[in-house]
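Hello again, I could really use a second opinion on something today. I've been staring at a protein lately and its backbone has me curious. Can you walk me through what the tokens say about the fold? Take your time with it, there's no hurry, and the full record follows here:
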Amino acid sequence: MNASKESRADGYESFYREFDSPLMRQIRREAYGEDIGQHSWVGADEMRGDIDRLKLTPSSRFVDLGCGPCGPLTFVLAAVGCSGTGVELSPSAIRVGRARAASLRIDALLAVHEADLNEPLPFEAGSFDAAMSLDVVLHLRDRSNLFHEVARLLRPGGRFLLTDAGVVTGSVSNEEVRRRSVHGHTQFVAAGWNEHLLESAGFRLVETENRLMSVLKNASGRLAAVQAHRAELERVSSTADVASQQDYLETVVELSRRGAVSRLMYLAEVPARV
């Protein structure tokens, strides 16, 4: 993800290097049912619905902020036929994403930029018709800056869809926070906080949806897959890394089961000029 170079390297870079190995593809199929190259809490059916929410057409200019290995982004491009830009800090993730686009024969539609979402983005105002950011904002130092940048990049009437899997909706212990934060800097927020920041950045909120059940389903699927392939994973990683990942997924499952930490989807729009 895109928190800082240090946390990125500690939390995700080594994971991305093995992302498209046969073992990891098998784990994704078992975890999610339909492998679209995702590694967060998003499923294929969810993405199909979000394409409609974003009003994407073949002529759309689309940007995915914190695109990782470009799984959901290439899924969208293949489904819609529009041009897409990915923004990601990890060189390993970018290499995987370009290879995925080539394998789907949509590489002509994809552009990927190495950039930090904590910094100003390297695009002109009004460059895009739609933007998404999936399960990324909880790793940012100041999400308000990103929201203002996205408002600048979108044309009037442009839509922004984001998900935040770190919205506190119940009681959480300090130990659970520690176990849930193994992928580097993680910022949990209160319900209503993202709505306030989006509106402060100039967006009009169109829709919100609690996607807690997607986290519970996908975390449970990932946990079962990790347990089933533990010996294989330990051969390519380490016993400590696999144990840490299992502990993380068990914590996510428990927090989701209690409804203590939710994953909210926000759909926002830049108001059209009158």
